[in-house]
Amino acid sequence: MxxxxxxxxxxxxxxxxxxxxxxxxxxxxxxxxxxxxxxxxGSYTTRYLRASCQCAACVDEWTGEKRVSMDSxxxxxxxxxxxPVGQYAIHIDWSDGxxxxxxxxxxxxxxxxxxxCLALPLSAF
Length: 125
Ligand SMILES: [Zn+2]
Ligand SMILES: [Zn+2]
Prior knowledge:
This protein is α+β, with helices and mostly antiparallel strands and 125 residues long. Helix content is 14%, strand content 30%. Residues 40, 42, 112, 114, 116-117 line the site of one zinc ion (ZN).
């Protein structure tokens, strides 16, 4: 059951490798910390990640419109399982029953909420 830390083997291609996580770890129940090959590090709340799911059930394939809103996601949502998908993405099983989410590394990197990237203010979550 569960996991604490998963490691991902780096792809051989140097450009791809820069945006590859070297470590994905749970921080308590509601946050996930990702360390990147270029030593960047960011902590994502589970709710934020769940709301950022890019799968066909969460984002309209045609319009690109989000079908899931932060409000509809429990604040204590947990990642039940995180597994690498090839060398480009991770798959997350969520405690709300959503299990089709795949998060490409480049998407995850764009979502990084650290003060350096500041995609979105963490205080909003
Ligand atoms: Zn989804
Ligand atoms: Zn960042």
